[in-house]
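User: Sequence recovery, please. Input:
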């Protein structure tokens, strides 16, 4: 299967949102502020070299949004369209994102995966990401439009 991988730009927003909407797991990770066009534009401006899109025949079939705070990297969104899974695309995206973070001096990266997403958790385990059981993930919404989560 032939495809190309390139950096994500804000011009990709509509295609990204369509891709994220292609699966329930991706849809439930979205929020109306951070994943709006303005939110993604802000994210890409902070992280111009660490977010990648997989394109086949002009259509985005995979994406990874990866950023950092200068200390730790985080994979915020990764999605491969269901019709293109199990072809090595996700692993390729992870490798590119990790390399991009290393180039920016980042030595450690983490990602968040819903506990009930068995296939995604298995994938991340295969990529060498360990499950941290000694931490609690806590969050607080500073905007009433963003749900707190479960």
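Assistant: Recovered sequence (150 residues):
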């Amino acid at each position: 299967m032939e495809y190309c991988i390139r950096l994500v730009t804000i011009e990709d927003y509509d295609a990204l949102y369509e891709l994220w909407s292609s699966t329930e797991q991706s849809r439930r990770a979205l929020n109306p502020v951070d994943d709006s066009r303005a939110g993604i534009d802000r994210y890409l401006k902070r992280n111009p070299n660490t977010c990648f899109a997989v394109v086949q025949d002009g259509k985005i079939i995979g994406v990874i949004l990866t950023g950092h705070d200068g200390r730790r990297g985080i994979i915020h969104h990764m999605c491969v369209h269901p019709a293109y899974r199990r072809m090595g695309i996700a692993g390729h995206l992870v490798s590119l994102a990790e390399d991009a973070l290393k180039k920016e001096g980042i030595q450690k990266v983490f990602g968040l995966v819903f506990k009930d997403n068995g296939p995604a958790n298995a994938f991340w385990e295969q990529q060498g990401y360990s499950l941290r059981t000694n931490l609690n993930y806590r969050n607080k919404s500073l905007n009433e439009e963003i749900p707190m989560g479960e």
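The radius of gyration is 15 Å.
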